[in-house]
Amino acid sequence: MMTFASTYVHVKNLHCCYIHKHGHAAYIFLEPKADHWIPSLDLYQSDKEDILNDSFLNDRVVNAAQKIMARQFPKLNGFQSTLLGENLSYVPVSRNLKSLQILHTGTY
Q1: Is the pLDDT at 29 greater than 70, yes or no?
Q2: Beta strand pairing call for 43-44 and 36-38
Q3: What distance in Å separates the CA atoms of residue 4 and residue 56, rounded to the nearest whole number?
């Protein structure tokens, strides 16, 4: 009897990543995300709707804002993913360097 398993994995900029396991072999199938609003910032149409409707901003939107600021202010350090705050794993920045970090607390 052959065993076959399928697992869904989220991969940045991809709609889905299916890993099909057949015995000891694994086959990976990737499909591009169709509803990207701004692919270079990893923002989706749902993020655009949240912004336009003054809804709660998720980590993708906050991280996109940091990417824009990092481009505008290349001499500033910081701008680490807000998801690092979930387990306090931000990488320390030297106190001799100017830095900026937006903290996404998940609350208002």
Answers
A1: no
A2: antiparallel
A3: 40
Which band of pLDDT confidence, cut at 50, 70 and 90, is reported for residue 75?
very high
97 backbone φψ class: left, alpha, beta (φ>0; ψ -120 to 50): beta
- Calpha distance 90→20 (Å, rounded): 34
Amino acid at 46: S
Closest CA to 96 of 77, 74, 79: 77
Q: What's residue 36's pLDDT?
A: 87
- DSSP secondary structure string, 23-86? TTEEEEEEEE-TTEEEGGGTEEHHHHHHHHTTPPP-HHHHHHHHHHHHHH-TT-EE---GGGGG
Angle made by CA atoms 107, 67, 57, in degrees to the nearest 5: 25
The phi, psi pair for 36, rounded to 5°, reads: -65, 140
Angle, helix 59-72 to helix 45-52, in steps of 10 degrees = 90
